[in-house]
Amino acid sequence: MTTSIEPEPRVGCAVDADGRITFGVRLPSAGRPRLLLQPRPKKGQPEKAPHVLDLEPSEDGRLVGVLDDNTALAEGRWDVYLLDEPDGERQRLRPGPRDLRVLVDGGARDRSSPVEVRVPYVTKSGYLSVRTWVRAAHAEADRIVVTDDGTIDVTGRLHGAAFGAGAVVRMRVRGTDTVRKVEPRVEDDGLGFSFTVGCDELAGPVSGDGVWDVHVRPAASAPAVRVGRLLDDVADRKEVFVYPSAEVDGCEVRPYYTMDNDLSVEVARIARAAGTAGTAGIARTQAA
Fold first, then answer.
1. Is the dihedral of CA 138, 78, 174, 107 positive or negative?
2. How far apart are CA 238 and CA 254, in angstroms?
3. pLDDT above 70: percentage of residues in the chain
4. Which domains, and CATH codes, for the chain?
5. Of 261, 259, 254, 281, which Cα lies nearest the Cα of 270?
6. Cβ atoms within 10 A of the Cβ of 143, count?
7. Which whole-number Å values give the CA distances from 283 to 131, 241, 247, 268, 286, in the listed order?
8. What distance in Å separates the CA atoms of residue 184 and residue 215, rounded to the nearest whole number?
9. Which of 145, 186, 199, 260 has its CA 20 to 30 A from that of 22?
10. Are 94 and 23 a contacting pair, CB within 8 Å?
11. How would residue 61 be classed by pLDDT, with cut points 50, 70 and 90?
């Protein structure tokens, strides 16, 4: 006797210009299936309540569920599951086709507050998840250049706020009160900005290794806004956008994106074996 094995269901998705995500899945059997978006807990923390999407039949034979743009999802990672029955066991879903074209140039459109971003992506284990960010305001980094003269040049655009009097770029060494302030160059529209910082200015105040987290304060009385790159289709940027480092005062200084796609600058002391020169023998660890 031959036993047929039903293929593992895969869920596709498409994102529209308003941030709405439409999920579609083909299932071999009838029932009352739903999609479960489960927020991934931080290490050592219990799971929080999921968001449930009803699935409705579509003309092409798929079951479709819609995550509306006005549905609030907390910042984090949301894993996608199938729930066959209300009291059934949940099943993690692998991805089908993903249409993320509208996200590619998402930074070209100005956003109002709050700035909410959702990016479907495939995990390292091959399952579908949704990365979400929710910020009152956001400073989107664009071009980052480490120059031959030992400076870091950053251009970006502010969303959910506007620059005013007393604007400043504020860089702070993580876990300390050490702060470096840089005056930004603000464009006429009050949203575009750029700034330059010398790598020697960042290496000097750091004892040992350290990380500078980058913020802008749009006006003297405004709250600080984290600089990062969220407005496209890349959910995890750290290993994708890799910038060169500058060597100064016995340190490597390198801009990078964190695991949350925020912009930081790493300062790493260079440890060389006796008698070595250049970059040979450098020992360093990568910041989070």
1. negative
2. 12
3. 91
4. 10-135 (2.60.40), 138-269 (2.60.40)
5. 281
6. 9
7. 33, 22, 14, 9, 10
8. 11
9. 260
10. no
11. confident
Q: Exposure of 157 by Cβ count < 10 A (0-12 exposed, 13-18 middle, 19+ buried)?
A: buried
Structure tokens that stand for 263 in this block: 């912009």
| Residues 6+ away with beta carbon under 8 Å from 260 | 133, 228
State the maximum Cα–Cα separation within the chain, in Å, rounded to a whole number.
79
Q: Which amino acid is at 126?
A: G
Where residue 61 falls (left for φ over 0; alpha for ψ -120 to 50; beta otherwise) is left
The one-letter amino acid at 42: K
**In degrees rounded to 5, what are phi and psi of residue 62?**
-85, 160
Neighbours of 213 (CB within 10 A): 18
Reported as a single tens digit per residue, the pLDDT across 224-262 is 999 999 999 999 999 999 999 999 988 999 999 999 999
For 238, the token pair is: 């750290």
Q: What pLDDT sits at residue 286?
A: 60
Instruction: Provide the token pair at 134.
Output: 């929710």
Query: Amino acid identity, residue 34?
Result: R
